[in-house]
Specification:
By secondary structure, this protein is α/β, with parallel strands linked by helices. Helix content is 48%, strand content 15%. Bound molecules: pseudouridine-5'-monophosphate (PSU) and manganese (II) ion.
Length: 302
């Protein structure tokens, strides 16, 4: 049996005609943000991609089908069920497809499915990475990103992580990391981490040329496009750092590990900052959708 890939009619048409398409993930909606903000942001991300001249393709596994492009009722159901929906990384997909179950897709799973559908650009908030401490909790996002011929536009890796180690791991795995209008790794809620990036670009056209060179001339592999949160949406670095320390302490006290850790930390940050972290997450994700659309358009022109 072929991969149970189900493209929405709009996404299928756009892919067949070579029009710009931007993949979006569903874990950010189901596990990363609280109801009902998550549905608002899920819809806004799609609208932002459209405003940039591309077709949005939100990805999730629904009843065992890897859906590329959800209708509004499907998106609303995932948002409303929230953490009750399974969280699937790329490795988990086979089980959901075989059993006919439903799951939100993380960056790794979304990369894998988007690549199978021939989609080359994906927007998210922040990728997973190397967690702090010595639990050896390293997101599969990094490996999946190294394998797939896809450009992931994000505000860097989430600030709850160990960013220096995450940057080293990206290098080891062979992910091309490119700053978009920045020379340093963004820190998700704030524009800068102090970690210098070797490569940066100022224009969607040059970014598209870099992607084409990597995929067409050099055989593939992921590109992590690091797009800092806009200054007017950023949080104060001291405030968010203190909140992260607090949230990490709560996770340690509660013995929260594995897949539950990232959603737990994001929810704690929302509580500690009185919702400010959610507003920042929305701002950075929308900015990523905008840059991803510009890249998808540029890729079709070059
Ligand atoms: N970006 C956000 N919010 C999120 C995520 C990304 O703004 O919740 C999700 C992505 O799906 C990413 C996941 O793959 O967090 C990382 O989870 P983990 O650390 O368990 O690999
Ligand atoms: Mn993990």
């Amino acid at each position: 049996m072929a991969l149970a890939l189900l493209l929405s009619p709009e996404v299928a048409d756009a892919c067949a005609a070579g029009r710009p398409v931007v993949a979006l993930e569903s874990t950010l909606v189901a596990h990363g943000l609280p109801w009902p903000d998550n549905l608002v942001v899920g819809r806004e991300l799609e609208a932002r991609v459209r405003a940039g001249g591309a077709v949005p393709a939100t990805i999730a596994v629904i009843s065992g089908r890897a859906c590329v492009g959800l209708d509004d009722a499907q998106l609303a159901r995932l948002a409303e069920e929230g953490p009750r929906v399974a969280k699937a990384g790329a490795t988990d997909l086979a089980v959901h497809l075989a059993r006919g179950t439903t799951a939100a897709t993380t960056v790794s799973a979304t990369c894998a499915i988007a690549a199978r559908a021939g989609i080359r650009v994906f927007a998210t908030g922040g990728i997973g990475g190397v967690h702090r401490g010595d639990a050896m909790d390293i997101s599969h996002d990094l490996v999946a990103l190294a394998r797939a011929p896809i450009a992931v536009v994000s505000a860097g890796a989430k600030a709850i992580l160990d960013l220096p180690r995450t940057l080293e791991a990206l290098e080891t795995l062979g992910v091309l990391v490119v700053g978009y209008r920045t020379r340093e790794l963004p820190a998700f809620y704030t524009p800068s981490s102090g970690l210098a990036l070797e490569h940066h670009t100022e224009t969607p056209a040059e970014l598209a040329a870099i992607c084409h060179a990597r995929w067409d001339d050099l055989g593939g592999g992921g590109v992590l496009v690091c797009n800092p949160i806009p200054a007017d949406g950023a949080l104060d670095a001291h405030v968010i750092d203190a909140a992260i320390t607090d949230a990490l302490g709560r996770a340690a006290a509660g013995g929260v590990l594995g897949k539950r850790l990232t959603p737990f930390l994001l929810a704690q940050l929302a509580a500690i900052t009185g919702g400010a972290s959610i507003r920042a997450n929305r701002a950075l994700a929308l900015h990523d959708a905008e840059v991803a659309a510009a890249l998808a358009v540029a890729l079709t022109k070059s």
